[in-house]
Specification:
The protein is an alpha+beta fold and 320 residues long. It has helices at 3-26, 79-90, 217-228, 295-302, and strands at residues 29-30, 45-52, 57-63, 66-69, 75-76, 96-99, 110-111, 114-115, 117-123, 126-132, 141-145, 151-154, 173-176, 182-189, 193-198, 204-206, 229-231, 234-237, 251-259, 262-274, 279-284, 290-293. The protein has four helices and 22 strands.
Amino acid sequence: MNKTQKILTGLVVIQIILAALVFYLGRPKTTSNEPLIKSVSIDDISSVQISDKENNQVTIEKVDGNWVLVNSGNFPVISENVTKLVDDLANIHTGRLVTNTSASHQRLEVDAENYQRKVDLKTANGDFTLFIGSSPAQSNVHVRLSGQDAVYLTNAISTTTASALVSNWIDTSYIKIESNNVKEIQITTANENLQFQLNEAGEWNCLQLSANEKLDISNWTTYLTAFTNLRMVSPVSTTMDESYGFSSPLAKLTIKYTENEQEKTGELLIGKKDETDSNYYAKWSLSPYVVKLASFNAERITNITKTELISVPATETVAP
């Protein structure tokens, strides 16, 4: 091996050593592998509040042994989702230390003013605040417990599990009726008053159509499915308030149907739009809750017209 070859070989060895050193120093430091939040148990927790950087926030509390949204008339929460969150929190350990200095909190998004998620827990053993930050690798996130400078890397929890959106914690079904059981639907808006009935032959017709007009069944079926399977964005309250706009609703949807061989009638009122989020207030007479509907679902009712439900006859082609 000549001198040049020896120099090149030496440079390669140095590069390998430097690469190994960078990799080693870049890895999270291993420390004592203890639970980050000690003694966290579903039975000890009384309240969970989750916030995100988009100003979304959900507050869940245990009332009479049940998890509910206390700010929304104690609307029931899916308890399994809370259990999953608490189990994930309990599985966060301190074995993968990333940094012990507060100067890195902003960059890792675990700062009190800059975070992906902030989880506030009220427990029998005290209150805790956990910051969930950036994700340097798939299924891994930075976490920090309030009051501590140490930041850890974990795959025990995710921003999906710790969602600040109400819709991720509840059953969003608001109206759920078997469309085959519906007998009549009436829609009243500022511009239309439409009544749809199912005749004895099992065919839908609109009473407002003239003799030479025909209901577009395909289009109507789409509406029927939407009306009978309506989802909310979030519950609001069990109390009626003037600010919701139900005294002069934008639309009223009345559905007559059978359930368990009993005839039922439900009435949906579409109230004002909440300008802060562009959702509409709504109230179904067979539910105690005022809710918010997404603008798409609400405006499908408020903007319905007879014209779009008329079947257009196919144009006959005249042979040359």
